[in-house]
Amino acid sequence: MTDNNYTPPKIWKQEGENGGAFSKINRPTSGPTHDKPLPVGKHPLQLYSLATPNGVKVTIMLEELLALGKTGAEYDAYLIKINEGDQFGSGFVDVNPNSKIPALVDHSLPQPLHLFESGSILLYLAEKFDAFIPKAAAKRAECLNWLFWQMGSAPFLGGGFGHFYTYAPVKIKYCIDRFSMEVKRQLDVLDKQLAKNKFIAGDQYTIADIAIWPWYGALVLNQVYEAAEFLDTGSYKHLNRWAAQVESREAVQRGRKVNKSWGDEEDQLPERHDASDFDRTP
Questions:
Q1: In this structure, is residue 205 part of a structural domain?
Q2: Residue-range definition of the domain harbouring residue 166
Q3: Separation of alpha carbons 262 and 264, rounded Å
């Protein structure tokens, strides 16, 4: 499927499916493909998502807020099956025209507020509930530095390394080498930062940790892409210390289960409407 003599045309056009995971739902246009309204539950916050790293950021944040006693953070979480194209339903596109999970609607306001992009959702929730973001200007800036670092860096890990190492229909050495080098550079950045700090942005657990852990913490713990040995993630001592520390938090353990519909049954909670739902998992 690779062609070393490929010359790009003057104007690119889609020519059938390109193979690999997600190829059946990839397309070069936006907008809905079918009419499907979104369900709305009883709580102020309505989440439409899937337990990918970007989705897990938000469910961890919501569970952390509830653990602090922020009852206004109660939420309903509905499963969006991206492999089946749920993200292209008319209701989902109304909330997020980019058709990517997660999407959140806040019904506690006079007019429902639509939120998309995981970093934007984390920042909104942190400010709404005055939690997991420092108040002092310098510390707040450092927290946001690392939040936006994650938003800019993770595509190299997910869409770059993860795609070519795990999901691409063929293994292309150039692509895997290119993105492995960048991911290892990023792991080194985090390891050096965590050599000086308990958490990513200092001594306080913040939305920077909540954003980074589902990607990079899960990577070094071999929970995404099954690439820990390949990337020698065990060599990043400080990053591993932090990853295990964050994983041990009860809210993190709960948040990881929400909108998950694969793997061990005891780790799945495809929909979440009440805290007691966790007690009903197998």
A1: yes
A2: 137-248
A3: 7
Give domain status of residue 241, yes or no.
yes
For residue 173, what is the domain's CATH number? 1.20.1050.10
Share of the chain above pLDDT 90, in %: 92
Closest to 77 measured CA to CA, from 101, 48, 51: 48
- Report if residue 244 sits inside a domain: yes
Cα distances (angstroms) measured from residue 197 to each of 193, 200, 262: 6, 7, 35
CA-wise closest residue to 106 among 119, 117, 116, 118: 116
- pTM beyond 0.85: the answer is yes
Cα separation, 210 vs 51, whole angstroms: 14
Helix (H) / strand (E) element for 189: namely helix 173-196
Instruction: Give dist(CA 241, CA 237) in Å, integer.
Output: 6
Retrieve residue 273's tokens.
């409407």
Over residues 252-279, the mean pLDDT reads 96
Conformation bin of residue 130: beta by default, left when phi > 0, alpha when psi is -120 to 50: left
CA distance 226 to 237: 19
Q: Structural domain tally of the chain?
A: 1
Q: Are strands 75-79 and 45-49 parallel, antiparallel or unpaired?
A: parallel
CA–CA distance, 242 with 237 (Å, rounded to integer): 9
Structure tokens at 167: 């999901």
**140: which 2 tokens?**
């707040």
pLDDT value of position 2: 56
Q: Confidence band (pLDDT; 50, 70, 90) for 139? A: very high
d(CA 104, CA 135): 25
> Would residue 83 count as lying in a domain?
no
Q: How far is CA 43 from CA 9, 47, 94, in A?
A: 51, 10, 20
